[in-house]
Amino acid sequence: MADAAVPPVDPLEPVDGLNPFDLAPSGRPDFDTGYLRCPGCGVIATPATVDYPVTPDGRLADGRPIEVTCTFDGHRHQVTAAAFLPRDAVAGCRRPGCAATFPVPTAADEVVCPACRLHQDGPGLDDQKRRDHVGQVYSAHAAALRARLGHR
Prior knowledge:
By secondary structure, this protein is α+β, with helices and mostly antiparallel strands. It is 14% helix and 22% strand. The protein is built from 1 helix and 11 strands. It has a 3-stranded antiparallel beta sheet with strand order 5-6-7, with no helix packed on it. Strand 8 and strand 9 form a beta hairpin.
């Protein structure tokens, strides 16, 4: 017996009522509001770079790979829109005068305020062991970048 065809999932539709990222004024995804777990280092944060295919009407192409680079270790990998984590917690911006609140994943190590774009500690770093791990990953990546650029 043949499997019933599964209708395609719109990558911009909420999963369990939670949007994986906001839309920019252009109507395209605002990837500063989308969070991934890096398969290289395990850090949960917004990607440093995103290259993604769009449909002729400017929407994220369903099921096509999205190329991302981890902010913390520079690991470049492919994901689909389904890999973006649900934003099931709320964070408050730490920049004086901003006071924005915004949705983030509970386990996010770093979050980005969509109002002022400040990168700041996420709720995942409430655990000291996790904080130490993320610091080690970032320090190793920074040292590798300095070495590649010929700096000490």
